[in-house]
Amino acid sequence: MINMIILDDHPLVRKGICSIVSSGQSMNVVGEATNSREALALMERTQPDLVLVDLNLGNENGLDFIQAARRAGHTCKYMILTSSVTRSELQLAQSMQIEGICLKEAFPEDLLYAVEVVARGRKYYDPVLMGSMMDDKQAKKEQDLSELTPKELEVLMSLGKGRSNKEIASALFITEFTVKKHVSQVLAKLELADRTQAALYALSKGLVQFEMQR
Question: Could you tell me which residue ranges the Response regulatory domain spans (predicted)?
């Protein structure tokens, strides 16, 4: 049996979530809370396995509540339920190793599935949220590429062709020292780890064509 608490400041939303999760096999709602103080007191009494936490609790934030609960020694699992989440909140939730995030707009069967996944010890992050985050990362990459200077773009294309600093310097009529500076700038602006990643990035963007070695 999975004993859980629902923390949400909207009574109708709480009742709806309670009705959904209570329909699942081996799921038992042991209490409801409208704010962090009530939830912490309820956790002391019931020792739940899982807490479903609204991200926006009026003047409070669900992530802050989870941090407070953990500091108080509550080691149960936590799942964020939200209608919307910022990129920074999503990143913070990931860094906090929060077990689950599910959109309130999810179908009832999706919420039940998410709860079951988290209860089994795995993480569940709503695919819609993760897809949006991937789109944001891709958009940022495109923006970063547009921020390269013409010379940095030439250096990136040369890296995509597998050229050494000496070869790049010769091709672009600049010194090797200048090449090194441009390479560092390219890696920084595109958030890439090394020359290999830069080369793969150039290939993925169609800046250069892959050439078979003869």
Answer: 3-119
Whole-angstrom distance, CA of residue 199 vs CA of residue 178: 19
Q: Which residue has the tokens 């020359």?
A: 195
Domain co-membership, 19 together with 64 = yes
Q: How many domains does the chain have?
A: 2
What residues make up the domain containing 163?
147-204
On whether both 28 and 115 belong to a single domain, the answer is yes
Q: Say if residue 100 is in the same domain as residue 198.
A: no
Q: State the SS3 of the chain.
A: CEEEEEECCCHHHHHHHHHHHHCCCCEEEEEEECCHHHHHHHHHHHCCCEEEEECEECCEEHHHHHHHHHHCCCCCEEEEEECCCCHHHHHHHHHCCCCEEEECCCCHHHHHHHHHHHHCCCCEECHHHHHHHHHHHHHHHHHHHHCCCHHHHHHHHHHHCCCCHHHHHHHHCCCHHHHHHHHHHHHHHHCCCCHHHHHHHHHHCCCCCCCCCC
Last residue of a domain, one of 106, 133, 160: 133
Place of tokens 């390269």: 148
